[in-house]
């Protein structure tokens, strides 16, 4: 072919191509009109609303405030003689976090606390922590001091009822005394916890130290406070009964 014919053919090919500036948008699979019509189908409409509701619930749950669990006890819960990070309430927080439970443990336990002292500061503790769950573990110091069991019962009952009035779920943790306190007092002391749990209809862990009570090596030199090494056993003991509050 001659140069002129070749140039003419190239020019025709260039002119015949679509402009690169033109945008060829793909056609929508479902038009707005089709979608609007489908929404008037009752079944599709209900399905759409269900999906929207599920996404809204998931979004709310992801940003929901954590539930607070208040541990309210004495030196046995305050980590006396050990590092706070080794105490069973701290181990409880770690276990809850490992299970991805949206629960924060607030430990308001004080060494040496009696049920009377706990009762006196109970309202302030609830106001400060705003708990939904409560582990009430007071009474050991009442027993060790030989205080009247009637006062122990009254103090614990006031705290339990105050919590229940605020819709706080309560786990009552009991204690037992060594036999040298005499059978009458030790039996009356133990009965306070079981009677209250039955009357107030709250779950009861009868004896906090049950899994280690017979092991002298589980206690510090004072013979009263558990070592750091057995805090996990105490938590395991609490954990089973605590499930009634976590459901």
Q: Can you tell me about this structure?
A:
The chain is an alpha/beta fold. 52% of the residues lie in helices and 10% in strands. The protein has eleven helices and five strands, in the order αααβααβααβααβαβα. It has helices at 3-16, 32-39, 42-62, 75-78, 88-98, 115-120, 122-129, 140-144, 149-165, 183-200, 231-246, and strands spanning 67-73, 103-107, 133-137, 169-173, 204-205. Strands 2-1-3-4-5 form a five-stranded parallel beta sheet, sandwiched between helices.
What are the low-pLDDT stretches, counting only 5+ consecutive residues below 50? 2-23, 56-62
* Separation of the first and last Cα atoms: 89 Å
Cα shape: globular
CA radius of gyration: 34 Å
Q: What is the helix content?
A: 40-55%
Beta fraction of the residues?
5-15%
Q: Provide mean pLDDT, rounded.
A: 85
Give a count of the beta strands, DSSP E runs of length 2 or more.
Answer: 5
- Strands side by side in the biggest sheet: 2-1-3-4-5
Number of H- or I-type helical stretches: 11
Main beta sheet, described?
A: 5 strands, parallel
Give helix and strand order, one letter per element, not per position: HHHEHHEHHEHHEHEH
Structural class: alpha/beta
